[in-house]
Amino acid sequence: MARQNYLFTSESVSEGHPDKVCDRISDAVVDAYLREMPEARVACETLATTNRIVIAGETRGPATITNEYLAHLARMAVKDIGYEQDGFHWENCDIAVHLHAQSAHIAQGVDAGGNKDEGAGDQGIMFGYACRETEELMPAPILYSHKILQILAEARKSGKEPVLGPDAKSQVTVRYQDGKPVEATSIVLSTQHLDPALTSEDVKKIVEPYIRSALPDGWITTDTVWHVNPTGAFVIGGPDGDAGLTGRKIIVDTYGGAAPHGGGAFSGKDPTKVDRSAAYAARYLAKNVVAADLADRCTIQLSYAIGVSDPLSVYVDLHGTGRCDEAKLELTLRDVMGLSPRGIREHLKLNNPIYERTAAYGHFGRQPDADGGFTWEKTDLVDDLRPLAG
Known about the structure:
By secondary structure, this protein is an alpha+beta fold. It has helices at 18-36, 67-81, 104-110, 140-158, 200-214, 250-253, 274-291, 326-336, 341-348, 382-385, and strands spanning 6-13, 41-49, 52-60, 84-85, 88-89, 94-101, 124-131, 164-177, 180-193, 225-228, 244-245, 297-304, 313-317. A hairpin with a 2-residue loop joins strand 4 (84-85) and strand 5 (88-89). The longest helix is centred in the N-terminal third of the chain and has 19 residues, at 18-36.
């Protein structure tokens, strides 16, 4: 029997966090290639530090995408995030692009040819998760940690709170009673501010109304513990304060630690890379299982070998909340969706330039976009799965 009464904490980081700046630039590169060639291959890593950005990795795509164009995209991403500081400014930071052709040895395993279908871009395991804690079928701590930062970013960019800077981190501790989230016992927020004279208490007065609006009514009580900028001044932020790298926020990107993680990052990878596409597929399947009322919680694991098309295994755990046979569900999931790299990409329409928007505030728990973004958040398999209910 799972624990019913406990505390659980998750964190999020803003789009201006150094690692998220790098995730966004890497995904802007992915989108640039897919916009020109839907079958392009990209494995892009970004490093950001004081007034310097380095973009490196492997690609296969049209020669029309130049290093100068990619550097321009990086500048535009940094500008949109909001960095115009002496130590990190979109207009004058140095940008070096070191992308080269994809390894032929990787390509030969991934490419389709003859009677061989397209294979997975690497070996590995990927997890998907869904639960009934929120309308989005996401764990509450990570969902509300994201929402706090999204609301603060909107206030900053709209001009309502110009004193706030782009770099921020949030953390919410949630108390569970009888297995359900009921209140926030502590809230942590560290946010960059552009006025050095502001104290932690000054910053709290600015951000508290936004934080309260992000959380459900009644979740913040007189007992809730607040830690806003607990170390004091936070003026030097972003890559000027701490170097950033693509792919270092994999728990922030997924379920906030409430579910397992296979270890592979998402940003900077085209959808032939199962680190990304199969993790999206696993979330899609898990969400549809819960939406179909087959369980209150669902974890799905997929596993792959490089160059091999079909998954080596499909594993389902309904955490004792299931209303169907897990082994039968595993077989059905293979029937309702092709789980080869090509099958996933075609089903979820992943060969589109939809990735830059995923780089901050989580890849899951988002609303599907009209142009094909976040297709893995749809619940269009519910009718296929409901007959399994026992």
